UniProtKB/TrEMBL annotation:
Gene3D superfamilies: Single-stranded right-handed beta-helix, Pectin lyase-like
Record domain Right handed beta helix: where: 334-471
Disordered: annotated segments: 1-21
InterPro entries membership: Beta_helix, PbH1, Pectin_lyas_fold, Pectin_lyase_fold/virulence
A Pfam match: Beta_helix
Name the record gives this protein: Fibronectin type III domain-containing protein
């Protein structure tokens, strides 16, 4: 066994020993390439600040039976050290003016700021002031306040609930006006794309066209009224200014402020037989929503960037929505692409600006075990192969996921799409703005299992989702069907949501032995397109699902039990409650 040590206080000219560790992960990676046999790279305590993403390729794989491990020193022992891999930059040189802290930050661009580890909110207003009219290019208001917002190009509009499951973002291009009114011109193509994408006739909202009025306006220097918020002024190219209104008692001389800079911390492509254990991945951003294309969210981690839309007609032709012909996907800040037999164990993903951890391409037989995901702008974890055959045998087990989707409210906790024989088991998912666990199907998908997870306090912001959500074909026979078994789903309380949600043409799914309580709706059997070869069997809930009294032709509904809440429910579901959630690490 070879042991390599790397420390923030090390020296890359040294030998990488405990006494003389390397200073950078890149140097450690290059050193490992020349070694044979098993290798453990020990990350010593402290912040390992990256100035560029750490890239791993096929030559960084274990081979000929050997395994390469990157781990926090002392992993799994009482002496385990906290090793943080950070893409952030500490902000210094603050000056104070009118109750604000200001710092000159050169060409820094970021969407997040962390003050002593706490995510500072972006300075914001709740909508456009005044009486507002929507135009082809933006908005006109009889208020002159927008003329004092600061640099217009810094300002971003947020559209929450354009569809109940979406939250879009679009930048401002220009603000002009006089003493009577203000004209706001929005970024293009984003605003034109939004008008193309968000069109519907639905029972809950009638007929709508385009994004409508924003629900929130962010990142104007003139919005800094709330303590603990920040704005980034980019009015002078290359001479950006960060502004922060401190909380009571905060002192710039004693406060550590970090701005995420990198969009990717680690990108491993074509790697196999490598493990990452006990490492904290932190301080990364994602700048794509800043572009003129905006962030036109549609569902889950997907968003629209042109290419045309299609119409989904339901309710016997009386209702319809438009959806993207093609979708892009929010990226991961830590990415494994075309990887096999990679283990991520006991790690922590936090202070991140996109999806925390992504497996993509032909990633098969990977495992995410006992890790913690929190304070992440998007989803905790996404596994999205291009086809089911390329996404086989991945396992997500015993992870604690909470307070994710904090910037992009359509993000689910865990998103697994187009997979074969993959497992999501014994995770504890809570405090998310939309779905807890999403299983997307497709042609060739088969054998996915969602087992013994504890999912609660989901759907806290948006609607039309669930604690566990499935859509599309999940197999082609009873033997290849997806199985949702032994999960506890509770506190999905906000309106128009379902604890267990088989939606949009889900087929070949067995939902059995789950316990559901305190939900707006426990489940739904009548959806469009209709369900096919879906079985609801042996579940316990405290209210009957929508459509239980007349299950459609494609649904088998048998042996389910409705039990009042409280002690009677706990007694009836004791075994299910006992087995759901974490078994080991990640608490």
């Amino acid at each position: 066994m070879n042991h390599v040590h790397v420390s923030p206080t090390g020296d890359d000219s040294g030998p990488g020993t405990p006494e003389r560790p390397f200073a950078t992960l890149k140097r450690a990676r290059d050193h490992v390439r020349a070694l044979s046999g098993d290798v453990t790279v020990h990350l010593r305590a402290g912040v390992h600040t990256l100035t560029a993403p750490l890239l791993l390729t096929g030559e960084d794989s274990g081979r000929d039976g050997r395994r390469i491990v990157y781990q926090a020193h002392g992993y799994g022992t009482p002496g385990q050290e906290e090793a943080v891999v950070s893409g952030g930059r500490e902000i210094r040189g603050w000056r104070e003016r009118d109750g604000l802290w200001l710092a000159d930050v050169g060409d820094l661009d970021t969407r997040q700021l962390y003050v002593d580890g706490r995510r500072a909110g972006r300075a914001a207003l709740e909508g456009i002031p005044g009486s507002v009219t929507v135009t082809e290019t933006g908005y006109v208001t009889d208020s002159t306040d927008p003329q004092r917002w600061g640099n217009p190009a810094d300002v971003e509009f947020v559209y929450r609930g354009v569809y109940p499951w979406t939250e879009a973002r679009c930048g401002v291009a220009a603000v002009s006006g006089d003493e009577h009114s203000t004209t706001i011109t929005m970024d293009r193509p984003a605003f034109a794309w939004a008008a193309e994408l968000y069109n519907s006739v639905v029972p809950w909202a009638g007929e709508s066209h385009g994004p409508g009025l924003p629900t929130r306006v962010e990142n104007g220097a003139g919005f800094l009224t709330e303590p603990g918020t920040f704005a980034l002024d980019r009015s002078v190219p290359g001479r950006h200014v960060l502004l922060y209104r401190p909380l009571p008692g905060e002192d710039p001389a004693r406060t550590r402020v970090v701005a995420p800079v990198l969009e990717t911390l680690l990108h491993a492509r074509g790697v196999h037989d490598v493990a990452f254990r006990g490492i904290v991945f932190a301080d990364a951003t994602w700048l794509r929503p800043e572009r003129p294309e905006g962030f036109l969210h549609y569902h889950g981690t997907g968003y629209y960037e042109g290419g045309g839309v299609e119409k989904a007609v339901f309710a016997e032709g009386e209702a319809w929505v438009t959806f993207p012909r093609e979708s892009a996907a929010m990226p991961g800040n830590v990415v494994f692409e075309d990887t096999g037999r990679v283990l991520v164990e006991g790690c922590r993903f936090t202070r991140l600006g996109a999806v925390g951890l992504e497996f993509s391409g032909g990633s098969a037989d990977n495992r995410v075990l006992g890790s913690v995901f929190t304070d992440i702008s998007g989803s905790a974890l996404a596994i999205r192969p291009p086809s089911p055959a390329e996404g086989r045998g991945n396992r997500v087990e015993d992870n604690r996921i909470h307070h994710v989707g904090v910037e992009y409210a359509g993000s689910p906790g865990i998103a697994l799409s187009a997979a074969q024989d993959s497992v999501i088991a014994h995770n504890h998912v809570s405090d998310v703005p939309h779905c807890g666990i999403v299983l997307g199907g497709g042609e060739g998908a088969r054998g996915a299992r969602v087992l013994h997870n504890l999912v609660h306090d989901t759907m806290q912001v948006l609607a039309d989702g669930g604690g566990v959500y499935l859509s599309g074909p999940q197999g082609d026979s009873a033997e290849t069907a997806a199985v949702v078994r032994g999960n506890v789903v509770r506190d999905t309380l906000t309106p128009y949501n379902f604890a267990l949600y088989t939606d949009y043409g889900a087929s070949w799914v067995t939902v059995e032995g789950n316990a559901v309580h305190r939900a707006d709706n426990t489940a739904v059997l009548q959806v469009w397109p209709p369900l096919e070869n879906v079985v609801y069997r042996g579940n316990f809930w405290d209210a009957d699902p929508v459509g239980h009294d007349a299950p459609p032709a494609g649904v088998v509904y048998e042996g389910n039990t409705t039990v009042p809440g409280g002690e009677e429910f706990r007694e009836a579901t004791a075994e299910i409650l006992l087995r759901a959630g974490l078994r080991s690490l990640g608490g």
